[in-house]
Design goal:
- The protein folds into three domains: 2-91, Rossmann fold; 97-112 and 183-285, ATP-grasp fold, B domain (D-amino Acid Aminotransferase, Chain A, domain 1, 2-Layer Sandwich), CATH 3.30.470.20; 117-179, ATP-grasp fold, A domain (Dna Ligase, domain 1, 2-Layer Sandwich), CATH 3.30.1490.
- Helix content is 34%, strand content 26%.
- The protein has nine helices and 16 strands.
- The protein has helices at residues 13-24, 70-82, 91-98, 100-109, 126-132, 157-169, 227-240, 268-274, 278-297, and strands spanning 2-6, 28-32, 37-40, 47-50, 53-54, 60-63, 86-87, 117-118, 138-142, 151-154, 174-178, 186-193, 196-204, 219-222, 244-252, 255-262.
- The strands form four sheets. A five-stranded antiparallel β-sheet has the order 14-13-12-15-16, sandwiched between helices. Strands 2-1-6-7 form a four-stranded parallel β-sheet, sandwiched between helices. It has a four-stranded antiparallel β-sheet with strand order 8-11-9-10, covered by helices on one side.
- α2 (70-82) runs antiparallel to α3.
- The radius of gyration is 21 Å and the shape is globular.
Length: 302
């Protein structure tokens, strides 16, 4: 297969691993900076162009789109969809997963376990906002935050009120979420490919840090998920329409609670800690989907 990897940098670990895994499986991997793509939007022959050339003969696309460039990156993916190219994740699910509020509303509607969360516009409703999640301590999150940035633990009502009012004064959209004390600063990340969890790790926050992000000094180790955690991870990915995603969950006294579903999960932490060839699993999934599509397209034998 001739596979296009949409990534800003070829040197990133996840991109390098996808290149290596493609070559190991006999595929041709092409890396393009999706921000340098431009599109010929027409009803008859939609095209994507890169460096002055049309991108033709592409069998599949693996989007690795940064959160800051979701709109444009997803637009490029949508153009490949219009061209009939197989995409590891389609454009609408990518956009859906990047909208934290919308994705949580969808997951809640589908019955996926979530921390109790509240959302409001007016600072006049701060008391009710805090009470909805069971009071303090609580977590305040910027809707646009990534990798643990824009996430604040407020241990008192006074602190929570101050942070909420400060964010709203900047016209920032925030979520207020219950604090799951029993998770003890740790979460689990499940890497879902298709309808299967292919790898899972437990991430522990650094001493004195309630956020478990590896970018913030956290550590990771391989973990065995419970049946409920596996089911929750797969259900969350299916609910958003994704095919490849990382699902971050907290272990609570009432079962697994989903924090976030990431449509472009980093591979370094999960591959290093779990020892699983996640990049290879992604290609195995694409190979199966491609073969199924080709069989459907093949003319019926007489």
């Amino acid at each position: 297969m001739r596979i296009l990897i949409m990534s800003r940098k070829r040197s990133l670990y996840s991109t390098r691993r996808l290149i290596e895994a493609a070559e190991e499986r006999g595929h041709e991997a092409i890396v393009i900076d999706y921000l340098r793509c431009y599109m010929n939007i027409t009803s008859r022959r939609p095209q994507v162009m890169y460096s002055g050339e049309f991108l033709r003969g592409i069998d599949a696309v693996i989007p690795r789109i940064g959160a800051s460039y979701t709109f444009y990156g997803a637009s490029v993916v949508r153009q490949f969809e219009a061209m009939g190219v197989l995409c590891a994740n389609d454009s609408d699910p990518i956009i859906r997963s990047r909208d934290k509020l919308k994705s949580m509303q969808i997951l809640a509607q589908k019955g996926v376990g979530l921390p109790v969360t509240s959302f409001a516009h007016s600072t006049k409703d701060v008391d009710s906002l805090i009470n909805v999640v069971g009071g303090t301590p609580l977590v305040i999150k910027l809707l646009e935050g990534t990798q643990g940035l824009g996430v604040v633990l407020a241990e008192t009502k006074k602190a929570a009120t101050s942070v909420i009012e400060a964010f709203r004064a900047l016209d920032a959209n925030i979520l207020v979420q219950e604090f799951i004390a029993e998770s003890e600063g740790a979460d689990v990340r499940a890497l879902v490919v298709g309808r299967k969890v292919v790898a899972a790790i437990r991430r522990q926050g650094a001493p004195g840090e309630f956020r478990s992000n590896l970018h913030r000094g956290g550590s990771a180790e391989k973990v065995k998920l419970t049946k409920a955690e596996r089911r929750t991870a797969v259900d969350a990915v299916q609910a958003l329409g994704l095919k490849v995603a990382g699902v971050d969950m907290l272990r609570s006294s009432r079962g697994p609670l989903v924090l976030e579903v990431n449509s472009s999960p980093g591979l370094e932490g999960v591959e290093t800690a779990s020892g699983i060839d996640v990049a290879g699993e992604i290609y195995a999934h694409l190979e199966r989907r491609y073969a199924q599509r080709e069989r459907r397209r093949a003319p019926a034998r007489s």
